[in-house]
Amino acid sequence: MKRKILVMICSLLLCVAAFFGFGHDADARIIYTTNDKTNAVAEKIIKRCTNDKMTQEQKLKAVYEYLVRNMRYSWSTGRTRIKVTKKEIAQTKALGKKLKVARSREFKNRFKNVATLQGTCYGQNKVFCILANHLGYTAHMVHGTHVTSAGHSDHYWCYLYIKGKKRYFDVQAANRTYKHNKHSKELKVLYMGSKKSRYWRKHYQ
Question: Per-residue pLDDT tens for 84-107?
Fold first, then answer.
């Protein structure tokens, strides 16, 4: 009887924790795509903008800012800007085995977006998802509506959990604003956004 009560209490505590967001990132792990070339390019980008002294969150921010400053909006693939050799592909594959990473087919077809640093809102945010997954987060895409002064438009952005809290990111919107204004004001708003914030409630539906 006591054992049943204990099991019920534990189950209840787990349900409460899940409801309030705790534990959503507890099972986060490094995730590679099933495309070795895509993984090698992703690792090369991460090495360009991070170092071993950074924390996981500092690396995430550095990757985000790198993409905001370097991605280009385009429906075409463009030229390859991040090139990898067979040796680098093999090294990344070996690293994956060493770290015992999980592999997902979800972003396997995003090689051209990662290698060219080009894409629409869909492609740009998927590149961020790939890099975030390499850093040990589990990133997801969101499809909805972006509201601007020009009206409502079909849009994609992404989210992941940090310390149990759901945080939103929009590389493409921040990239567009940065290209026009060359400052980081909007970059900060579009990094680790919360649906509770006034900005996200107003612009994302």
Answer: 999 999 999 999 999 999 999 999
Burial label for 83, CB within 10 Å (0-12, 13-18, 19+), is exposed
Matching residue, tokens 């409502």: 152
Hey, what CATH topology would domain 24-203 get? C8orf32 fold (3.10.620)
Residue 1, helix vs strand vs coil? coil
Residues with Cβ within 8 Å of 175's Cβ and at least 6 positions away in sequence, in order, are 67, 68, 69, 71, 73, 124
Asked if residues 40 and 88 have their Cβ atoms less than 8 Å apart, the reply is: yes
Conformation bin of residue 186: beta by default, left when phi > 0, alpha when psi is -120 to 50: alpha
Place of tokens 């790198």: 66
- For residue 201 the two structure tokens come to 């409630």
Taking the model in full, what pTM does it have?
0.84
Dihedral angle computed from the Cα positions of residues 100, 42, 107 and 69, in that order, rounded to the nearest 10 degrees: 140
* Ranges under pLDDT 70 in the chain: 1-28, 182-187
Contact (CB, 8 A) for 119 and 88: no
Q: CA-CA distance, 139 to 136, in Å (whole number)?
A: 9
Query: Residue 99 and residue 130: Cα distance in Å, rounded?
Result: 17
Sorted by where each begins, the domain ranges of the chain are 24-203
In angstroms, how far is CA 2 from the centroid of its own chain?
A: 45
Strands 118-119, 72-73: pairing is parallel
